[in-house]
Structures are given as structure tokens and as C-alpha cells.
Amino acid sequence: MEQWIAGVMDFWTAEQGESSKTPTIHQPNDPILQNLDMRFGVIVFPGSNCEHDCYYTLKYVVHQQVRFVWHKEREVSEFDAIILPGGFSYGDYLRTGAIARFSPVMEAVIKFARRGGVVVGICNGFQILCEAGLLPGALGRNAGVRFVAKSVYLKVENANTLFTKSCADQVLKMPLAHGDGNYYADAGTLQQLREQNRILFRYCTNAGEITSAANPNGAVDNIAGIMNETGNVMGLMPHPERACEAVLASNHGLQIFQSIVASA
Amino acid sequence: MANHQRELKAKIHITLKNGILDPQGKTIQHGLEMLGFTGIREIRAGKLIEIFFDGLSREQAQQAAENACKKLLANPVIENYDFEIIKVNKE
């Protein structure tokens, strides 16, 4: 078994050569992660399907406290951070995230966010945050119409946030899987996002170049992830929770969770 | 026909705003063109939602449809809506 893991690690080390800037991954015993015990809540809607990945990663890889929160709960003040996981809440009916946004728990999540609580929306979670008005813009059908599931590279555009502080000047590799990831915001909103450095991740090549070929879904400006004005709510389409261990072909997603924990 | 057998229905159309990419409409257009249809400038796909009211006046139905569109049915960032209130037989 150990040999097998070593083999995978070797393979991973070789794989990492793909990305031009290799991220630093903190080991669990790294001082930066020690004595930190954040309480994460992972919201579960009918149709969520990435909640276990988030739970597993936060508990067993990032070593934090975590609990599932059913969408009918009405209080989230016990937590330090809330994760809205990926999936197809309410079957994506009407629009992605449109119905989930009115789940009982969302009222509490909105209050939590407005008080400065940390909220992360991944994939369907990002769509829900846009529908709830916690993030600007909307996510439309992929430009190619098809569902896209593949690994992408993300350029970290702003590493001076609680979500990205350990990702300075890096290109992160992680998977994405969605049919509606085509981020859109009107010109005024985009201008504001740019001026306030609220675009955190953009789709890029493995060398960190922003090209239209590297854009998997037609998102305006290659935008993969943004944050709110007060810097405590982030949404992104790719799945960092699926990229937190070497056996998963990338552990770059860990950087995002470690940034959050290190910021606590 | 007795009056109580007629009820109101809101016929709501939700469409993507001008300038918002509509990949579904484009795909439908390609499909039609493959079948030999010509002279098509553009196709935009939208949604039709019907609300069948029970016992509401025309004014109340109008208000309810408007509120439903604003609150849930359309996303004002990317979509427009319009609707008409029509009389239908109550089954």
C-alpha cells in the first residue's frame, strides 16, 4: 500500500510539471494550520451531490469541524464558514439555483453573510449565491450548450483575499463539471468587479495565459470565480473540494481551504 | 355558460435579454438550417409558464403574475418577462 502511494506521489510530482507555477501545499502539521478549529457548515439541498466531497475534505484533509446542514434548518450562527456545495438543487428546474435560493436555510445564510460570515459557493452553490443576490451577475447555459466535465487551469487574479491568500501568483488545476457555468454580468458590474479586484479566478492555459481556447463555457472575461464587495462571500464554478489529495490528480484545491482556515 | 366556470390564467413568456448569448436558440437554428430552412436571421428560445388562478379578479391575477415574475420566475440580470391574463374554462 505504501509503495502504491509512493508511486502515485511520484506520478503526481511528474504531473505537477504541467502547471508552470507549482503551489505550496501545507502539510496538516504545518504551523499555519495548527490550533485552528473552524466550524464549517455544508448546506444540503434536495439534489445537492457534492456535499460529501466537501465534508470529507474539510474533516479529513483540512482537519476542521464540519456538519451537514439540511436546507430546512433556519439557523447557521454556530458556524465560522458555510459551504454551498455543487449539485443540481431542485433538479435545476426553472433556472439553476432559482428555487434553492428560497430554501428556509438561505434566509439564515444571507443574514450570516451580511454579518460578515464566510460563505463559499461551489458550482451550483455559486449559482445559488448569484440568485440570492449575494454575488452579482448570473450563470447561463454553457456557450457550447453541452455539459462540460474536465480539468481546467485557473489563474489567481487576486491573492489578497481570505480565500486565496496562499495562492499568490499561481496557476491552479482543478476539475469542473457543469452545464450552466457561463458567467455573465453587465458592463457596469464587470467594471466594478475589475476595479475592486473581485475577480479571483479566471480560466487560463497551463502557463497562465488567458485565452478563449482555455474558456470552457463562454464566461465573460474567462471568469471562473468572484467575491462580494466585503470580501467574505466567494463563488466559483470549478471544484476545489475534488482536488485536495494527490490521488485525485490535483491537490491545488486545498490551497483555497487552507487560505480560509489560515484567515480565521 | 355560468360565470363561475370561467377562470383566469396568466400566460407568462420569459426570454433572454437582447445581447445575452442564447446557445439553445443557436442550436435550434442550426437544426432548422440543416433541414433546409432558409431566411432565418436568428432564433431565441425562451420559456412559457402558465399559472391557472382560482377565484382571483383580473386585477389580482395581474398583480400576482407580476410579483411571481419579479420574485422567482425571471432573473432580471439576464431575462425579460411579459404576460397576458386570459379567460379559460375551469375543468
Key features of this structure:
heterodimer; A: 264 residues; alpha/beta; Rossmann fold; nine-stranded mixed β-sheet; globular; disordered N terminus; B: alpha+beta; Mth169, Chain: A; elongated
Structure description:
The complex is a heterodimer of chains A (264) and B (91). Chain A has 264 residues and is α/β, with parallel strands linked by helices. Chain A has one domain (2-262): Rossmann fold (3-Layer(aba) Sandwich), CATH 3.40.50. Chain A contains 6 helices and 11 strands. Chain A has helices at 2-16, 51-61, 104-114, 124-131, 187-195, 254-262; strands at residues 39-44, 65-70, 81-84, 118-122, 138-140, 148-156, 171-178, 182-184, 199-204, 223-227, 233-236. Chain A is globular, with a radius of gyration of 17 Å. Chain B is of the alpha+beta class and 91 residues long. Chain B has one domain (3-89): 2-Layer Sandwich (Mth169, Chain: A), CATH 3.30.1280.10. Chain B contains 2 helices and 3 strands, in the order E-H-E-H-E. Chain B has helices at residues 23-34, 58-73; strands spanning 6-16, 46-52, 79-89. Chain B is elongated. Classes of the chains: A alpha/beta (264), B alpha+beta (91).
Order of helices and strands of chain B: EHEHE
Report the C-alpha radius of gyration of chain B, rounded. Answer: 17 Å
Q: Helix amount of chain B, in percent?
A: 25-40%
**Mind telling me the CATH superfamily name of chain A?**
Class I glutamine amidotransferase (GATase) domain
Query: How many structural domains can be distinguished in the coordinates of chain A?
Result: 1
Strand order of the largest sheet of chain B: 2-1-3
Query: Sheet with the most strands of chain B?
Result: 3 strands, antiparallel
Number of strands of chain A: 11
Structure summary, number of beta strands of chain B: 3
